[in-house]
Write a structure and sequence with these properties.
heterodimer, A: ABC transporter involved in vitamin B12 uptake, BtuC, 14 helices, about 75% helix, B: alpha/beta, Rossmann fold, 6-stranded mixed sheet, 10 helices, 12 strands
Chain lengths: ~350, ~270
């Protein structure tokens, strides 16, 4: 039996190695993709600028493209992909429902409303991001408040609260679109809502990395305990888990990551739903493996999709459209094949 | 470890669910809780497991007041085996069992190889070691209940609470699971299980508590207190209790009846 345990561990170790290698490959090859062609040698020459002892100013178009334009964008895609898929995965465990997405409590629609409002009010890029983030958090806070005040079962009340608050913010966004200036504001809002990483600059990175880091780390360290949440309230409690506290941590972390992602990139659907399913197919159900696997696979997925977004047509395709194009067929395939249960 | 319940009362709004319930179970006792649906069995279990705070009354584990115990400490005293239900996520049997060690782990750690070894030993004892890497959604209901039993055993709690552990199981699986539960009492665990099947109380329990309208109708040794009259009063139907012989042994059994004569006839045919 020990051999069987070791065999399973070996199998998953190899799979992690493959995904880790895929991440590195996709990460570096993404620098070579785009309208301005970058050579492999040019890439490495440019990346030298990132070394700590290298304080020289960036010289040459190639290095400028690599360091100032593509690096922030690739890092953002990787981080946002990791964040959305981990947030979706955590919510799925907490709500014991594999069909849940990171928007379940309204973080994305709240952020969408915030962005639309700030575009209407003529805010700059930073103002839009900040307002979107604040409204994303507020939406989830309101859903939690509804659940707190409700007499229904806490989980049911939270989900219903999330749906209602989402619906309110969604109606708010539609209203803003209705009264927005059709020449500038409406196209800007529409494009923002479809999701894109076009305008990411180096200065945006801390705004993405810090909340995502703050959200990702606790989930990573508490990943064994999230397994117990999937067993339901009573069973988790009977095994010594403070379910209320753990749920709160999961909600705060997943919301921080979702709101920060949506605030910077706009609405990017499907990542938080499809990637956790894929991770389960490859790594089983244990959150000790699922959290790092989902983060890695989400990162790879969004970097690849972003590569497609900026190369296929002369103008960029919004990410939200592409993730739906990829996500929906993949999901149909999973439904038809019953995907995740084949191995056990 | 003994468990003592003193004057437990619970009400939801104006509705009294448990009224002044008191009983105790010693180490090695296997207690069956009988009673019709909605009589307060699950509420009683929720109190014992610490999910629900009673309006009045006390629960003691080996002399320690339950309200003084933290959630993790409670989990070291009492473990829970729920009713059979299809799992939402298809965890392997081994992973499911390992969840039981969580209350002894530091907050940020998962189980290690020593826990895996212990989990495998328990699974072997229960006769399902060969299923350790199968998904809990892909094994029979009885095997899944045994996996949950293994999870409760690795928790190292001495009091085991089981809410209708054989509900929704077929005849064979019901017997397999109940045999294991009966053995746990002999191993020194204090087992409290609810059931809708009085025969399980006769065969596997050494104590019985019959709940009616939130109160204890009767309690004691099953063969002394579970008479046809008591069971009839409990369930509102006619119940006959008699003995049947199988091999050299005689067993007490209960049979519901609409007509006393017909039931006697059936018993005679057994």
């Amino acid at each position: 039996m020990k051999t069987e345990n070791n065999g399973a561990a070996d199998k998953y170790r190899k799979r992690f190695a493959v995904i880790g290698f895929a991440f590195i490959l996709v990460f570096f090859s993404a620098f070579l993709v785009g309208r301005y062609s970058v050579s492999l040698s040019g890439l490495f020459r440019s990346l030298v600028y990132l070394l700590p002892f290298h304080s020289q100013e960036i010289v040459g178009t190639e290095s400028t493209v690599v360091i100032l334009i593509r690096l922030p964008r690739i890092l953002a895609a990787g981080l946002i992909g990791a964040a959305l898929s981990t947030a979706g995965l955590s919510y799925q465990g907490m709500f014991r429902n594999p069909m849940v997405s990171p928007d379940i409590l309204g973080a994305s629609t709240g952020a969408g409303f915030g962005a639309a409002l700030s575009i209407l009010l003529g805010f700059g890029y930073f103002g839009i991001t900040l307002t979107a983030f604040v409204f994303g958090l507020s939406a989830v806070l309101l859903a939690c408040l509804v659940s707190r005040l409700s007499r229904l079962n806490a989980t049911l009340a939270l989900i219903l609260g999330g749906i209602m608050i989402s619906s309110l913010f969604s109606a708010g966004t539609s209203f803003i679109k209705l009264i927005a200036d059709t020449q500038d504001q409406l196209p800007a809002i529409t494009y923002w809502l479809m999701g894109s990483l076009t305008s990411i600059r180096q200065t945006d990175l801390p705004f993405i990395a810090i909340p995502i880091g703050i959200g990702l780390l606790p989930l990573f360290f508490l990943r064994w305990r999230i397994n117990l949440l999937t067993m339901g309230e009573d069973e988790a409690k009977s095994m010594g888990i403070h379910t209320g506290r753990l749920r709160l941590v999961v909600i705060i972390c997943a919301t921080l990551m979702t709101a920060a992602s949506v605030a910077v990139s706009g609405m990017i659907g499907w990542v938080g739903l499809v990637i956790p399913h894929f991770s389960r197919m490859i790594f089983g159900y244990d959150y000790r493996r699922l959290i790092p696997a989902s983060a890695l696979m989400g990162g790879v997925f969004l970097i690849v999709v972003d590569n497609i977004a900026r190369t296929v047509l002369t103008s960029e395709i919004p990410l939200g459209i592409l993730t739906s194009f990829v996500g929906a067929p993949v999901f149909i395939y999973l439904i038809l094949t019953g995907g995740e249960d084949r191995e056990h | 470890m003994s468990i003592k319940i003193e004057n437990l009362s619970v009400s939801y709004g104006n509705h009294d669910v448990l009224k002044d319930v008191s009983f105790s179970a010693l180490e090695g006792d296997c207690v069956a809780v009988l009673g019709p649906n909605g009589v307060g069995k699950s509420t009683l279990f929720r109190c014992i497991l610490g999910f629900l705070k009673a309006q009045s009354g006390e629960i003691f584990f080996g002399g320690k007041k339950m309200e003084c115990l933290s959630r993790a400490e409670t989990a070291r005293h009492v473990a829970y085996i729920p009713q059979f239900a299809e799992p939402v996520f298809n965890y392997t049997v081994l992973d499911t069992v390992l969840m039981g060690v969580t209350n002894r782990l530091p907050m940020l750690r998962g189980p290690g190889p020593e826990h895996t070894k212990k989990a495998m030993e328990i699974l072997e004892q229960l006769g399902i070691g060969h299923l350790s890497h199968r998904g809990t959604g892909k094994i029979s209901g009885g095997e899944r209940q045994l996996a949950l039993l293994a999870r409760a055993l690795i928790q190292d709690a001495q009091v085991l609470v089981m809410d209708e552990p054989t509900a929704n199981l077929d005849y064979g699986n019901r017997s397999r699971v109940m045999e294991r539960i009966g053995e746990l009492g002999k191993q020194g665990y204090t087992v409290i299980f609810s059931t809708h099947e009085p025969n399980q109380a006769f065969h596997y329990a050494n104590k019985v508590i019959a709940l009616k309208d939130g109160e204890i109708l009767t309690g004691g040794k099953p063969k002394e207190v579970l008479t046809g009259k008591v069971l009839s009063e409990l369930y509102g139907i006619g119940v006959h209790v008699g003995t049947v012989s199988a091999g050299e042994n005689e067993y007490l059994v209960s049979l519901p009846f609409e007509d006393a004569g017909k039931t006697k006839e059936r018993i005679g045919q057994l």
